[in-house]
Amino acid sequence: MLDVVGPALCLVSAMFFGAMPIFGKFAYEAGVSPGALLLVRFGLAALLLATLLLLRPGLRRGPRPSGRQIMIALGLGAVGYAAQAGLYFSALQRLDASLLSLILYTFPIMVTAVAVLLGRERLTAQRTAALAAASGGTLLVLLGAGGMSFQPLGALLAFGAAVVYTGYILVSDTVVHSVPPVVLCTLVMTGATGTLGAHAALSGGVDLGFAARGWFWLACIAVVSTVLAMLAFFAGLRRTGPSTTAILSTFEPVVTTALATLTLHESLSPVQLAGGALVLSSVAVLQLRPRSPRQATPAPVAAATTT
After folding, report:
1. With contact defined as beta carbons under 8 Å apart, do 197 and 36 qualify?
2. Residue 243 in contact with residue 285, Cβ under 8 Å?
3. Number of structural domains, the chain?
4. pLDDT tens across 274-291, in order?
5. Which residues span the membrane (predicted)?
């Protein structure tokens, strides 16, 4: 039996997240600072999701989250998402974007290794092949971008972002089966907004006096690359599990490279095309893998959320 919906949602999420650097480039050209980008991104996303829950009460249908689950979801945003974004953009000031993406995308290997060690996943031959293909393809896509600058501190920050994102995915998997997806996304965005708002208040605020077109690109980041991307991510994670979601997420840098070619007039080299083909092959391997009884029944993972 083919599991089409779960992998498709993971790929949609990767595509929406992959568009974010392009939107960010245009936002920076309009005078938006990194601090303003992050605060507006998460704040607007939290507002949109809360409004969606008010207008569509049915989206709240499902198990009522416990106090512990609510705190975990808020912590995912306040600690996990906010920290990962902060580390990422700090590293981006010191490293080429392609090298940063390469280091960040060590997270599928970390997620798979930790999930296997925790007993949440089995390291099947198909999953191993998919992980190898996805990692190798991502390496070719990013190395094909050309020369790279290197700073040890930047590399350390990028590696830290990958470690935080690994924890974020694994912790998300403990609540994603017990909390309605839109509720979970709203709590995550609210937590991130709280952390970034507090940081802005303590550091003297953020400059919102940028060009009007900057708000358009921020809206694209908040709606497409945050709200829609997060909803697809959690829905996909719920159906496929953490390691499969992480592997399919390696499609994100392929999307970023392709969009950069179309919008920023960068060209894809033969090496990058070969890398993209490898990443897509990992998707095919995962889709053809029959679902195991463990994956068909999410109870072992959901049980971890019991208070």
Report:
1. no
2. no
3. 1
4. 877 787 677 667 555 454
5. 37-59, 71-91, 97-118, 130-147, 153-171, 183-202, 214-234
